[in-house]
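Onboarding guide, step 5: your first structure request.
Type a short instruction followed by the sequence, for example:

Predict the 3D structure of this protein.
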Amino acid sequence: MSNQLWHLPTIGSGVRFNAVAAMAIGFLTFGAACTPTARPLPDVPGEAAQTGPSPEAGVANDWSYLGTNRPETWAHLNEAWKACGEQGTQSPIDVPVETLSASASALTPTSSPSKDTAQAAPAQIRSELGAVTVQASSDGRLVTLQPSQSQTITLDGKLASLQRIELHSPAEHKLGGILFDFELVLFFDGETGPLAASLLMRRGTENPALGPLLELPPRGAYPSRALAGELNLDRLLSPVQLGFEYVGSATTPPCTVGLRRLVLSPVAELSSAQAERLSAGLPPSSARPVQTLGDRPLKVLPFVTIPVVTKATSKSIERIDALAQQSRSVSESNEAKQHL
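The system replies with structure tokens like these:
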């Protein structure tokens, strides 16, 4: 990859997309079915990580996505939630994919990479996520899944363990102004510090990896309960090739800032029938509106899946080798620039 913008032919209303934009949206057709992925492993998350969104201790649990206490009012509902009203620090955002190039360097939208960022060594997201059983719980506003086995990713060479998964409908993040049907937010913690990775989903072809997501209890509040089957995270994330990284916040009160956020792309798909089954187990709305990006930089990082060797096929090994070679080429190119 390089910092060059590759332009595709003009689509629809005259919007021109570069290669990153096309990859991020998955070559989405506008107007298609989209509503208006030798160190010891970290421990399996304990009880403390099993809770869904919860305000700080002693704070009234009275926020909501709809009605009087909707997101626009959160900053005024409680003194501890003032961060919810900050500009340029909050999540979710609309990722401006049309202004970004296929580069691992930090970019500020509508600007070119600086000399320092252009020479920075590229980071990489390495996923070792696989099939996992989960327990679901809901406070009536948001459904949370708790993994029963340790699952990890590596970012910047640092290991992080999956803590929980939040399900949002519709999606909170947007890509190039496009709203998607669902968003799965995978929360990690470990050597990376707190980290949240978002997988966006849209209606399209049937997805065999959803498993227990289609077996959620009817919408409403309920305590933690085991779901049948396994959630195949590796297969669910199989379309993903890039991650857009920025520093944001939690999307529920108290909207804690300084959280590393990853928006994964291209987006995943599920059939209309699967979307209806998933929607039946989710609140009618569980999405905070997009927030101002401001001057926060974005990074475009390659996403590499590292499968279990005994399960890897020759095709997946070849793909990993190709991606690894691509990453090495970017690294060698940046090293060469440093010696100029």
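Each response can be followed by summary notes, for example: The two ends are 19 Å apart (CA to CA).
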